[in-house]
Design goal:
Blueprint: E1 20-29, E2 32-35, E3 40-44, E4 49-55, E5 58-62, E6 85-87, E7 93-100, E8 112-120, H1 128-135, E9 148-156, H2 162-172, E10 182-185, E11 189-194, E12 197-206, E13 210-213, E14 216-224, E15 227-234, E16 237-245, H3 252-260
Antiparallel strand pairs: 1-2, 1-3, 1-8, 3-4, 4-5, 5-12, 6-7, 7-8, 9-10, 9-16, 10-11, 11-12, 12-13, 13-14, 14-15, 15-16
């Protein structure tokens, strides 16, 4: 697993490696400098840089930079060097300068440099619940024990089979399509988080027995204090999603970083 390592850096330094979560605020392309025309974030760690883009309440997480963002200065090392540049950087902001080969793009020129400016601590109202779920460890609410972070380990057809099926789910989990997929419940939202993105939706609870998301109703059967079966009804057939509470204090992002691996040289 790759740990999310954010370092303590001097407030006024402008040559440090960016570490943390940053939102794009400005973009300079073929129309000059403009306010960021899209909602985009960079997660910068010692091992990898991930990009998060937002479409409504749905988020995509990708490794499209294939490098760790370390300070380079604002000038290429050689005349024909088109490597991405990172400068004016610390824990508060950084500037990314990269060479575009896009043809007929709305913002990016072809065969020229683009500049993107990023600042930390900025989130839109719709993105903050996602990043809170991604980086946080929600605590259990005694009034509603569903709140918290849950690992989705798989489906069972019938609850009567759960004692027999549960050991198989746990054994096969690391190789399953549900590996490191999380449901994070708060008082107001549930967030589905996994390697390829996630979504945030408003949630309403009926104590601990059920909850609704939009117009969809989910019945909850408690198997133990830290394990639940959630009814997932499709047409007239009901499967049961088995969720196990995450109790090791880790945030979903630490697991997702591990899935992407490291590009550190």
């Amino acid at each position: 697993m790759v740990a999310l390592s954010f370092v303590s850096i001097a407030i006024h330094a402008q040559t440090d490696n960016p570490r943390g979560i940053y939102k794009m605020t400005k973009l300079t392309g073929h129309s000059g400098e403009i306010e960021a025309p899209l909602e985009q974030y960079k997660i910068c760690t010692d091992d990898i840089t991930l990009t998060v883009s937002s479409w409504g309440a749905t988020f995509g997480i990708v490794d499209n930079d294939h490098q760790v963002f370390n300070y380079t200065g604002d000038q290429p090392k050689a005349k024909n060097d088109k490597s991405a540049l990172i400068y004016d950087s610390n824990d508060k902001h950084f500037t990314l300068k990269w060479w575009s080969t896009f043809a007929n793009h709305a913002y990016f020129p072809k065969d020229d440099w683009c500049i993107e400016k990023y600042e930390s601590g900025l989130y839109t109202e719709r993105s903050k619940p996602f990043f809170d779920a991604l980086t946080g460890t929600a605590e259990v609410d005694k009034k509603n024990p569903l709140t918290g972070t849950w690992r989705f380990i798989g489906h069972v057809d019938e609850l009567s089979d759960v004692k027999k099926e549960l050991p198989k789910l746990q054994e096969n989990y690391p190789a399953s399509k549900y590996f490191n997929r999380f449901f994070v419940f708060t008082a107001d939202t549930w967030t589905v988080v996994f390697k390829n993105g996630g979504a945030v939706n408003k949630v309403e609870y009926d104590k601990k027995r059920s909850f609704t998301v939009g117009d969809k109703f989910y019945f909850v059967k408690w198997l133990s204090k830290n394990r639940v079966a959630v009814e997932d009804r499709v047409d007239y057939h009901a499967d049961w999603m088995i969720l196990e509470r995450v109790t090791d204090g880790s945030a979903p992002l630490s697991h997702i970083l591990g899935q992407f691996g490291s590009v550190k040289k």
